[in-house]
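Notebook entry, structure prediction.
Reason for the run: the old model in the group folder had no record of what sequence produced it. Starting over properly, with the input documented here first.
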Amino acid sequence: MKILVVDDSSTMRRIIVNTLARLGYKDVVQAADGVEAWEVMQANPDIGVVITDWNMPNMNGLELVKKIRAEEKYKDIPIIMVTTEGGKAEVITALKAGVNNYIVKPFTPQVLKEKLQAVLGTNDE
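New structure, fully documented this time:
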């Protein structure tokens, strides 16, 4: 299963990709903003999960989520929002837009693992 990691910070993308690799997820593609992420999704129909930042240039994470959810073929793809925006209003906004789970930065590898397992319906204790 391919995972798309979207964040305008190359450092944050690297942290997430490295964490995913340690969890056994090696098939990962990356994008620096929502526009690039959308292009990557069109070129990779086998993407199974999207992990996206909220605050990015060009197209932010919330706009990306809405665009993904507007497409019938992507309506069931799990989306995890990773952001510094941890307020209740932001979480509710993201969930209403179609995000399946939410991670507030900074986070631990364990948190990413738990959120990923939650959206994928897996639990390998």
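Summary: The chain has one domain: 2-120.
The old model has been moved to the deprecated folder.
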